[in-house]
Amino acid sequence: xQKKVDKxxxxxxxxxxxxxxKVVPVFQDMILRSVPGYENLIKNISIIxxxxxxxxxxxxxxxxxxxxxxRKIADxxxxxxIKIVAIDNSEQMINYCHENYSNYKxxxxxxxxxxxxxxxxxxxxxxxFTLQFIKRDLKDQLIAKIFNALDEKGILVISEKxxxxxxxxxxxxxxxxxxxxxxxGYTKEEIDRKKLSLSNVMLLDNIKTxxxxxxxxxxxxxxxxxxxxxxxxxxxxx
Length: 238
Known about the structure:
Number of strands: 7
Largest sheet: 7 strands, mixed
Radius of gyration: 17 Å
């Protein structure tokens, strides 16, 4: 499927955001123009994974969307003995992965709700801008499930958009993020419509809430290794 330019929110009629057939063709363009530092983030997640993956082990990419992270990890690790399982609850996203990455024999793409999927033992789990779309009452449960699936030295790499603890910082970062998107060609109307579309769909937490959640389920420590405006990523060790 050829990548297209994101023009979804030129439409004045705002609908609840979904990862559907309308979003799939433009998603790569959308995320590159909306998430500062995304390409560098994906590259470094593959390097972090390469350093931490155990021999003959499993890697999970939960909420894999178009499979960009799984593909980059497969390119970096380059081992048929490392199995990558990429899961997403959007059938359209998984169909895209099947169509475009059939030559990656060590990646298995699965259409499933990650809250219901039974995880086997893994040395690395990736949760890339996924927890923010999970219902609040299921977030702790999912992180606990990941903790239990990781082997003794396993890690979780989790990336999220976060909210600030202070109103002043939140407005400051929001202003810069919106300017970032405007510099990438989005109009103010598109930015406002997308924000409305994502309300009650993207459920954001602050950094302290995330780090408290890691600790509460049993992780030994976490390191916030990446930040670009209000987009952050942690390495969380079991």
